[in-house]
Amino acid sequence: MSTHTTGSLVPIRGWQRTYSGKVHDLYRPVPGGAMAGMDTYLIVASDRIAAFDHVVPTFIPDKGEIITRIARWWFDRTGDIAESHYLPGGVPRDIAARGILVRALRMLPYEVMVRGYLTAGAVRSLGTLGTLDAMPYNGAIEVGAKLELPWVGIAEKRRPGCPDIPIPWEEFILRVGESTAERVRVLALNLYRHAHAIALARGLVLADAKLEFGTDMDAGSSRLILADEAFTPDTAHYWLSTDYRAVKSGEVLPTPEALRSFDKDAAQVWLMSPQSGWNAEQGTQPPALPAAVVADIRDRYLRVCEMLTGERWPGR
């Protein structure tokens, strides 16, 4: 069996690939293997990057290892707030840097969006749709605007290749029940506030984050468990706190250029530019990213990783 890395195929003995997402590949133990019979999965992060619900035909060197390191780091620091599906160790040696072992869950088919600030994408959504996460928004509409209270939105996850669909909170309550909806809201807020404080102490503003939850496979279990990846630049937006202070003090205007986004938005910005010649609304596949953009994205991901973990990336 194999997984995509930077364009090559690497065998993973004892594991069978069952699903490939935009960035991650999911594996189950093969019968007769060392992990056979266990309710575990192996999640392997590739160097692929997604933008506007498309996989960009360009690999970002080391990206899979970077987001895996960040995800592990956050799982280790959020355990007091929420139990996660992460199982330390057990990853085959040849993909140890980009794989994590997790326990099987019954996933809630929703993404939870927690926002502490308005990002460039949120401002675009408000300008186009007049709503934020399918709900009315009455606050200031500018990049970097801090929300009076952290905002929690819900998007319904659909089949692979289809974009997630934001739904109003009232609709979410009707689908999962008021008790589950409230537990999701409270847990997501607690995780975001905890992570925001940690990131800020390291010079980063965690503007928003997408979270996913599941429950144990046991019938009747309702305990919410943090799943997928946590607070990586693929699923969260980061700004430098120095940039944010400059914007808030009035030294610079609140623009996307002033608040540089240290995440996959760097790919989206180029794809929206005239240089790319691409229009996301036409339904065509995005073009390859130029080498300079690839290097910039890699550098931004590495910057977040190094600032959070306090460890220099090899060769930097």
From TrEMBL:
<dbReference type="InterPro" id="IPR028923">
    <property type="entry name" value="SAICAR_synt/ADE2_N"/>
</dbReference>
<dbReference type="GO" id="GO:0006189">
    <property type="term" value="P:'de novo' IMP biosynthetic process"/>
</dbReference>
<dbReference type="GO" id="GO:0005737">
    <property type="term" value="C:cytoplasm"/>
</dbReference>
<keyword id="KW-0436">Ligase</keyword>
<keyword id="KW-0547">Nucleotide-binding</keyword>
<comment type="pathway">
    <text>Purine metabolism; IMP biosynthesis via de novo pathway; 5-amino-1-(5-phospho-D-ribosyl)imidazole-4-carboxamide from 5-amino-1-(5-phospho-D-ribosyl)imidazole-4-carboxylate: step 1/2.</text>
</comment>
<protein>
    <recommendedName>
        <fullName>Phosphoribosylaminoimidazole-succinocarboxamide synthase</fullName>
        <ecNumber>6.3.2.6</ecNumber>
    </recommendedName>
</protein>
<keyword id="KW-0067">ATP-binding</keyword>
<comment type="similarity">
    <text>Belongs to the SAICAR synthetase family.</text>
</comment>
<feature type="domain" description="SAICAR synthetase/ADE2 N-terminal">
    <location>
        <begin position="18"/>
        <end position="281"/>
    </location>
</feature>
<dbReference type="Pfam" id="PF01259">
    <property type="entry name" value="SAICAR_synt"/>
</dbReference>
<keyword id="KW-0658">Purine biosynthesis</keyword>
<dbReference type="GO" id="GO:0004639">
    <property type="term" value="F:phosphoribosylaminoimidazolesuccinocarboxamide synthase activity"/>
</dbReference>
<dbReference type="InterPro" id="IPR018236">
    <property type="entry name" value="SAICAR_synthetase_CS"/>
</dbReference>
<dbReference type="GO" id="GO:0005524">
    <property type="term" value="F:ATP binding"/>
</dbReference>
